[in-house]
Amino acid sequence: MVTYYRDPAVEVTSDRIALGDRAYPIAALHRVWHRRGARRWSGVVNRGALGVLMLGPLVAAAFGILLALLLETSLMTTAAIVAASVVVGLAVVPVADLLLDRVDRSYDRGTRDLELWALIGGAPVLLLHSTDARRFNQIYRALQRAVESSTVTSR
């Protein structure tokens, strides 16, 4: 028996798929497909907010430099405003790493509800519902490999 995927709730092997307290033999799956649900706009808005957070200090720094150049102040005052603006702009570097990590994780989670279906005994059965795109894709691909290997060995 080959294990294609395993986590605390799902196990896909060459013999069966187990989802919590339910298990189905791979040979009983006659057709496997997935459906994507409606877009969850909260995920899209979250990504947009993260982008604005990353650009905010840079825009503030550019505004400070522009302000320093437009104001008719002494050279020292202008230099101090430009230096402060550059420091604000550089402050975004460590924060940007944290925000980019959050953006990466938001893509892993996805913005849609995902469903994994199979035709078992002539009836469509919902095997899995998830909002975690990365995990869903791993399970779906593991199930595809298990079904493919079962059809190759049954020939």
From TrEMBL:
Transmembrane segments: 49-71, 77-100
Keywords: Lipoprotein, Membrane, Transmembrane, Transmembrane helix
Superkingdom per UniProt: Bacteria
One Pfam match: DUF6232
Name of the molecule in the record: Outer membrane lipoprotein
